[in-house]
Amino acid sequence: MALFKANTILTIIFGIGLYASAIGSYTIIFFTWRILRSIDTNQIFTNSNIFSLNMIKLLGYSIAAIYMLMIPSILALSDDGRSSTLGMFFVNIFLIGLGITIGVFAQLLKRICSKITKFQIENELTI
Fold first, then answer.
1. Distance of CA 57 to the CA centre of its chain
2. Torsion (CA) 83, 84, 85, 86 in degrees, nearest 10
3. Residue 94 — φ and ψ, nearest 5°?
4. Where do transmembrane segments lie in this chain (predicted)?
5. Any idea what the Cα angle at residue 111 is, between residues 33 and 123, rounded to 5°?
6. pLDDT tens-digit profile of 32-64?
7. CA 7 vs CA 21, 22, 81, 83, 94: distances in Å
8. CA neighbours within 13 Å on the CB side: how many for 93?
9. How confident is the model at residue 126 (pLDDT cuts 50, 70, 90)?
10. Residue 2 neighbours by CB under 8 Å, 6+ apart
């Protein structure tokens, strides 16, 4: 009976983690779409884009953290003696790396965008 409850709780944690990462992924897509729309209107270096890049960075790190917290539940749920445990573990590690990569790249773009915005404001003030 205790094993059934533990597997049920781990399944619920796994489902919540998947839904949370899906919501984060769709939010990243929304902010990316916002950035692309502002690029189409030739408003590339704005505070709105800096905010969007900051949100993408935070969401990328959040997705990585969600998958890090899901490692024990994935290992416990797939610990049935088959070789699928290793594959699920490597998929989880790949998703963690993907979230960190998205966060680092968004941080890099945010720094570049904020420096260019700062130089653009200084240039407008000197002319």
1. 7
2. 80
3. -60, -45
4. 12-36, 56-77, 89-109
5. 100
6. 999 999 999 988 888 899 999 999 999 999 999
7. 21, 22, 15, 19, 24
8. 7
9. confident
10. none
Identify the weakest region by mean pLDDT among 2-11, 38-47, 51-60, 110-119: 2-11
Answer yes or no: are the C-beta atoms of 58 and 87 closer than 8 Å.
Answer: no
Q: Supply 56's token pair.
A: 């993408």
Residue 24 structure tokens: 């984060």
> Under a CB-based contact definition with an 8 Å cutoff, are residues 45 and 116 in contact?
yes
Rounded to two decimals, what is the model's pTM? 0.85
Contacts of 84 by beta carbon, 8 Å cutoff, 6+ apart: 78
* Both tokens assigned to 123: 């240039």
Structure tokens at 83: 């070789």
